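Changelog entry: the Acyl-coenzyme A thioesterase PaaI-like protein record was regenerated in this release. Current contents:
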Amino acid sequence: MSTPSVLGTWRRFSGSWPGRLLVSAAVWLRAPYFLTAAPVIRRLEPGRSEVSLRNWWLVHNHLGTVHAIASCNLAEYAMGVLAEATVPSTHRWIPRGMSVQYLAKAETDLHAVATFPTPPAFADEREDVDADVVITDAQGREVVRATITLRISPRPARASVAA
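Regenerated structure tokens:
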């Protein structure tokens, strides 16, 4: 029995605010580290994800702005749902590295857009692919830019169980 895909679940439930929250929360449960940041998926399709983060006290730094690591969490969450929506079930992915530029103080709710500038090939050999994540504030000003390198490889064949 296979688990439902994030994209399939998104397509089924994204028509309402409670549905979008339900899908976002399902991802939090799968990766509980995201619970404090509580990012919410706004749009999801193969090759693109849009995710938001509320500016609330659990993501603040000592200045009262969104903490740099909360911004990294938002970037990683956006990349993760992008990868889940894009990478076929024949392949798997894992983050290999992340570079981040903090461009301005994040003083409002944030919006992240993750894309693959060069689409993955999903070949028979493993490949490293970059996902670009642009994070903007409520005024549309870019506050963080991240590039996350993913290793995408074919899933190993599963051994069949004799009946």
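Residues 6-154 form a domain with the Thiol Ester Dehydrase; Chain A fold (CATH 3.10.129.10).
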